[in-house]
Amino acid sequence: MTRRLPDDFLIGCATAAHQVEGGLDNDWSRMEREHPQRIRDGSVSGMACDHYARYRADLDQLAGMHHTAHRFSIEWSRVEPRQGIFDGSALDHYRDVVRTCRLLGVEPVVTLHHFTLPTWLADRGGVLDADAPRLFARFAAACTEALGDQVGWWITINEPAVLAVFGYMYGEWPPLQRSTRAFLSALGGMARMHAAAYTAVHTVAAAHGWTARVSFAHHDRPLRPLNPRSPLDRAATVAPNALFNRWFLRACRSGRLLPPVGRGQAVPGLGRSLDYLALNFYCEERVRFSRRHPRGMFAESVPAPDLPLSSFGWSIDPDALRRALERLWKEFRLPVLIAENGVADENDELRSRFIVDHLGAVCAAMASGVEVRGYLHWSSMDNFEWAEGYSKRFGLIAVDRATMQRTPKPSAALFAEICQTRVVPSAVPVVG
Ligand code: NOJ
């Protein structure tokens, strides 16, 4: 098997506005203010990495490390701070981000919704608001008008199933709801929003003769039985796997709100609304049957006994990425852009090996026929990890939060070497 990545393979990092930009006023910053106990290390996103001001230097640094692609999200609350009032200067900012990428030879990958909402929309019910698809489409159209001449890769919504679980089922993220009914409605609402944005991006792009590829970002987190010989453990994986790992994808293919979210009713624009598959992959999860976990559909997550764990407690198993890629390819036959893959690692002890082994798994999947177009590491720099605050470090680059000084970690150099040579070593090279 070759461990050489094709010349046109996109390679770089992924970020999201709320986690790196700083100075935001959206439903998340409101929750951080009003419910400080929700953030485990007591932090607020605040100035984050001050990337809104420092994006030129940050992109320059990544291009200097031979990255050829960069994923970022457009913050809706900046572009449309009040309903129907668009701020041209915010769109100019993102236009300059894209222009800077292009000047540096970096392919931009643009996300339209990465977990945060403007407060005016949150107050109307957020993704449950019947008008949210129309409003999201209008925002998507404005972004495509402004950036579409220079952006070919679009992501409508980041990880809808994760947002539905944490925001609507477990009540840990905005809007802090804990209801199975709200969880299902959120999935349905986001499917409608995705369909509307997919149509809007394509309509604007086609009117100008621009090319656009559109996907949502699918978080695949396959559940496996802790004890494969236990029928109960095996059974416990079935419903959550179908709902978290497949429902949204199948809805986007069939164009229907499939059960248990809907009764199979058609949604305009939803059918075949994936031009490629943006895949966020971190790990598989081991589960056992537990009557005490009705909200988790009786699947209780347990640390994998036989695998190393990240500082988030997530198992590290590169072959799980190969398996996921092969399963997704078999079922959907869509070219894949790995839109996130990374590891929480306080001291950069795990990351180099993680990168080498996961890119090795990508090479193995490609050798077996899966079309993988690129790999975006999560993330370029340590940033605000949602309810974990700043306690989890996913970055190739450390950020001193007092001075905002950036310091590349050893794993950044290794990743840069892979980006430059396109060769994935079979082990982490020993330095010195
Ligand atoms: C996926 C999310 O898209 C991103 O925002 C988050 O930081 C990473 N996972 C790590 O948890």
Automatic annotation (TrEMBL):
GO molecular function: beta-glucosidase activity
Matching InterPro entries: GH, Glyco_hydro_1
Pfam family, one: Glyco_hydro_1
Species this chain originates from: Candidatus Amunia macphersoniae
Keyword annotations from UniProtKB, A to Z: Glycosidase, Hydrolase
Stated family: Belongs to the glycosyl hydrolase 1 family.
Superkingdom of this protein's organism: Bacteria
UniProt protein name: Glycoside hydrolase family 1 protein
